[in-house]
Fold:
Amino acid sequence: MESREDEDNWLRCASLIMKEIMNNPDFSLGVFADNLYMKNLVILTGAGMSAESGLKTFREMGGLWEEYDISEVATPEAWKRNPELVLRFYNERRKALLGALPNAGHYGLVELEKYFHVRIITQNVDDLHERAGSTNILHLHGELKKSRSTIDPRLVYDIDGWELNWGDLCEKGSQLRPHIVWFGEAVPNIEIAIQDAEQADIFVIIGTSMQVYPAAGLIDYVPRNVPVYLIDPNETAVGSERHVEIIRMKAGEGVAQFIRMARG
Ligand code: APR
Structure:
């Protein structure tokens, strides 16, 4: 005889199948079953993910925070003091982004969608995961190619080209700012990211120095029995006691290595 729990699981499964059949004309039971048993692979990415695309990281030698002072270009105070300098800083980043292409690492993460339910939580403000074709991305620190109203944060716009200038206004007549989470500001998507981390079956960290919170604290929400991997060519101090499997490689070859390991 089946237990109450089995019965509940069967009912849940049957109702999911019915929903799929009704919503999806191309429904296939085989694909559905595969999806049902796929594991949740949650991936946290940082600036190193895009380094092989030619975009600078922040804290390495020659990184952006060596060239610029965070307090002058990436804080609400900087915006109040010298908005034109802030706009110029992000215009330069946007210009570099328009000339960049996704790299092998980004494409590798797309391939992983064949084997896992992949969720990418990125600290990056570039759109290289999207351009590579990943389908399930959460931006923690905003998006470089978008602007936002300074009086109504719900008003977010795509930026045409690379320039956002002083005098560019939202539909309510207020100045537009970069759609970026600056130091000292709340991270609106962190609660969603925490839920993702809690539901991970495998957690992979790629190309982040794990210096910036709350993003770096996500690892603490990953269940204790879940394997955690870190892909980075340099030594990274993960601020957590738990075991982390290190893949000491750049994103491109590290992701390829992870795919080989995951496929057995
Ligand atoms: N592949 C993988 N990792 C790399 C590569 C590469 N090719 N090249 C460098 N790295 C690693 C570095 O070793 C480092 O650990 O990428 C990491 C980059 O770290 P940071 O420059 O600190 O970038 P990140 O962790 O993303 O910064 C977090 O800080 O300034 C803010 O908002 C900004 O989102 C950013 C946040």
Summary: DSSP finds ten helices and nine strands in the chain. The mean pLDDT is 93. Residues 46 and 208 are 4 Å apart (CA to CA).
